[in-house]
Write a structure and sequence with these properties.
Blueprint (H helix, E strand, L loop, with lengths): L1 H18 L14 E6 L4 H5 L5 H10 L4 E5 L12 H13 L3 E6 L9 H21 L3 E4 L11 H20 L4 E5 L8 H10 L5 E6 L8 H8 L3 E5 L3 E4 L2 E4 L2 H10 L4 E5 L7 H17 L1
Parallel strand pairs: 1-2, 1-10, 2-3, 3-4, 4-5, 5-6, 6-7
Antiparallel strand pairs: 8-9
Length: 295
């Protein structure tokens, strides 16, 4: 009798453990599979100067053998208004003809606005671009929490209405095959504890983290990354991180070892910032990441 009871307990424990696996753990179990690609913010300057457009960026990413592209919504000519279907499908066709997955798109929203009607406008912005993402065949849409805690309110009070807004977007996205990637951006979400807390408040299973490695401004960003990597559904891989508040070149070897050790499966878009030749900087970081995967 005791043996039977013990067996039932063990079965229950193993069953429960299955549900506690990281959301990014793929069907291959211990093998991490990633596709490295381009986040269009890397070409922010030339796109805004009209020296490049989305189609040019797609072709460049393909020319250096990237596998995916994250097309930030700001770079569609009509943003924040949604683009025409004609333009959306031209972008989609160009990516297809250049063998690139469209990993995602993204908007600039603010869910920390105190007025509920104003927050609803921000939610509608996300929903409108979820439809764009669906038409593009994108897996995710990147959103923000908002810039800061509004005056007169606490972090916890603000987090509650942010989570409600994220959930509404996520459930809408679920109906259209697009996941919500909430980005840590050194704004309302500054630390791994902030990220874990806000995502614990979200009820939808269609929301995860866009893990921005350059936006943790604590003692050791790699420790912060490890604390939230189980939430990651997409990334922003940057050339630099902040170690003890000092901007420091990314330790690509350490980062990729962590990604592979934690069995992350999915896209790894890179986002280069700052001055210099954008194409060369993208290629340099891409090459470094690829070399670590081979090793």
């Amino acid at each position: 009798m005791r043996t039977s009871i013990l067996t039932l307990i063990l079965v229950a424990l193993f069953a429960t453990a299955g549900f506690s696996q990281p959301a990014n753990k793929g069907s291959l179990g211990d093998k991490s599979r990633v596709k490295i690609g381009l986040n269009l913010f890397s070409f922010d300057v030339p796109i805004k100067a009209k020296q490049m457009d989305i189609l040019d960026a797609i072709k460049y990413a393909a020319s250096i053998d990237m596998e995916c592209i994250d097309i930030t919504g700001y770079y569609f000519p009509t943003y924040p208004e949604v683009p025409s279907d004609e333009y959306i499908y031209e972008v989609k066709r160009t990516a297809f003809r250049n063998t690139l997955d469209i990993a995602g798109t993204g908007v600039r929203n603010d869910f920390t606005k105190v007025d509920k009607a104003e927050r609803q406008k921000e939610i509608q912005l996300v929903k409108d671009w979820i439809i764009v993402g669906e038409k593009l065949g994108a897996s995710t849409i990147r959103i923000f929490s908002g810039p800061e805690v509004p005056k007169g309110y606490t972090w916890d009070e603000t987090a509650k209405w942010i989570a409600e807004a994220v959930d509404e977007c996520a459930e809408f996205g679920k109906q259209h095959g697009v996941m919500i990637g909430l980005q840590n951006h050194d704004d309302f979400l500054k630390t791994s504890d902030d990220v874990n807390k806000i995502l614990s408040l979200c009820k939808s299973d269609n929301v995860g983290l866009m893990l921005d490695i350059g936006c943790f401004r604590t003692t050791d960003p790699y420790v912060e990354i490890e604390k939230v990597i189980h939430h990651a559904i997409t990334w922003q891989i940057k050339e630099t991180v902040f170690v003890n508040q000092v901007e420091t070149p990314t330790d690509v070897k350490r980062l990729m070892a962590l990604i592979q050790r934690k069995n992350y499966n999915g896209y790894l878009p890179i986002e280069t910032l700052g001055k210099g030749n954008e194409k060369e900087r993208v290629k340099t970081l891409f090459t470094a990441l690829k070399n670590e995967i081979k090793n």
